[in-house]
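Supplementary Note 3. Input sequence used for the single-chain structure prediction.
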Amino acid sequence: MRAIPAELRRIVLRRAVGRCEYCELAQEGQEATFHIDHVVPVAAGGQTSLDNLALACVSCSLRKAARQTARDPQTGKEVVLFNPRRDTWIEHFQWQGVRLVGRTEIGRTTIEALAMNRTVILAIRQEEAVLGRHPVERSD
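The predicted structure, written as discrete structure tokens, is reproduced below.
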């Protein structure tokens, strides 16, 4: 793992407004410090630069690991995972209460690969909603 300079880390945190750029979980209220993720992994030639870094909760970071693709649960086709530096979140995901739903094959595949709707995260999101920290549902 490449060290990320403190100033670059601060910029990534500020840009993400303290939320995981994959599942939108807020850092506030979480015990584990979110990771700075190399969207394109260093092992695949990804650079430690602002345009290749994203804030990721521990769960999304560890489940994504060095993967860039996974199988679409609907079609079985190999699909690129959501890239927060290239893709627009709302185009690929939508909230249905505390459950995340994929709008596209990228959304579906990322939700499945990162286990974004497992039981424990649904319970965390429910608690976050009560505390006013769960993202507001967006329709478009």
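The mean pLDDT is 93. The chain has one domain: 6-130.
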